[in-house]
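note to self — DONT lose this again. spent like an hour looking for the file last time. sequence + predicted structure for the chain T wanted, 102 res
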Amino acid sequence: MPRMNAARLVFLVALLVTPLAHARECAAPPVKDSQQAICYATNYAEKNRLPHGRGVKRKVSKGTKVWTVQHDVSKSDGSRGGGWAVEIDIATGTPTRFTSFK
């Protein structure tokens, strides 16, 4: 078996890791359903390092011009912690308003 030099090894590792670093792909706008709104909100959360995984309850509602995606964080003892909400513009899929609460 041929030996792999360090440069080739780094290149191979970079190819494997790069797709994991990118945000997940969402369907193109307009935002038609709650799953698509959640996708855009999740990308926003990952970009801004907001809690959005385990222990987070998600609520989605549709307005006339925006989808509102709210994340409520639960503490380990079961009580309600802080949270955040983001409004996703229906026409463009961009986050238009961010709110955090304790």
